[in-house]
Fold this sequence. Notes:
Layout: H1 5-17, H2 47-50, H3 59-66, H4 75-100, H5 106-115, H6 117-124, H7 133-159, H8 167-174, E1 178-183, E2 194-200, E3 204-209, H9 218-232, E4 238-247, E5 252-261, H10 264-283, H11 300-303
Parallel strand pairs: 3-4
Antiparallel strand pairs: 1-2, 2-3, 4-5
Amino acid sequence: MFFTWKDIRDVAERIRRTPFEGVSDELRGWRWSEPPIAPMYNTNLGVSDIVSGFCDTGRNVYLKYVLRKRESPNPILKRGSVIHLIHERAISTAKRLIYSLSNLTGQIFLNYFMAERDRVLKDALTGVEKEDRVEVEWTVKNLWLKAALTYSSQLERALSRSKYLSRETIVSLTVPENAEFAIDGSLVGLSPTLKIDSLLPSGIIVEIKTRPYKPVYELTLAGYALAFESIYEVAIDHGILLQVIIDRKEKAVRFYQKIIPLGDNIRMEFIERRDRLAEVVANREDPGMPEMCSPACPYLHICNPPPDKVSRKP
Length: 314
């Protein structure tokens, strides 16, 4: 979850071994003014709206953008937001400390980093139901310690290279990823305020998921790749789907990485989904209820499906 340069090298090696047929130029984000990339409607949707994994019909988009209904938080989504909070705060805290500490050593860094944990815990517990507080506290403490040990050891390794390294260099050697990387997706019909969970050097996009794996989640990476290419005109050929699984029984957090080649098929599938849901908004048409609703959907209180129409798995 907290990538080091060794992790990135391992990912790069796996990518080289992954079969990849390439990408047709007309399906690159920099072809945003031409079909099929060019948006068909003047509607900018979020990638998470298009690939929510909640609703097969896309009624969540209709409720959000047409009826302007508000989402209702639930424990499943809160669990995911806690993981994302820890990830972003750990990365930003590590970088801030390296820049600001006058006396920089691995031990001093570790002490200051761990002192930030209670602030993160306080933020993570905001809005959490009483029965879920123990799990959230355990998750924050476990992952914050993991981040602390990871970055303090990487810092010591960086400092051992030379005593003349600039703070900028030390940061890049210790914390090589960018969390919550902001990007404007409006050229390809997406939100102007997209945030990529993590961007690794050499342009590898990482999407973090805490719900059980669904193939549709892979489309998220295609959406971010199109947006990135539209702005920077840099080819994005692969992404990483990072599943973070909290095992309540064994009190463990497990991480599973899946390399996703971002070829023609996955790009076209995302574009078709984008256009279908943009049409829903443009025409103000209710696409109707799905056959089964996800218990993680933040619009269950609006749709109010019968219990037998709510899946057991999020």
